[in-house]
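Translate structure to sequence.
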């Protein structure tokens, strides 16, 4: 399904335009503090592939349904944990 509304979050997989169903929270320990959470969005089709990509590198921290995701405010200039 391709969302018509630009406000609808879409999958982070390259070339995918499907609606996001999952949030993959991750962290690169070489770049981020331990509590920092970046986020990739995934459709049903790409959830496993993106999870494996992050997991093999030791980056994947959590996978939650999009509607359950609660971004963490990192304070001034820090952005949110939902950064892609």
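Result:
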């Amino acid at each position: 399904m391709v969302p018509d509304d630009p406000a609808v979050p879409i999958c982070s997989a390259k070339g995918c335009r499907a609606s996001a169903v999952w949030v993959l929270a991750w962290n690169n320990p070489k770049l981020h503090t331990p509590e920092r959470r970046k986020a990739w969005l995934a459709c049903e089709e790409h959830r496993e592939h993106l999870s494996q990509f992050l997991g093999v590198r030791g980056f994947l921290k959590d996978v939650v349904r999009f509607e359950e995701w609660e971004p963490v405010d990192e304070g001034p200039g820090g952005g949110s944990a939902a950064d892609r």
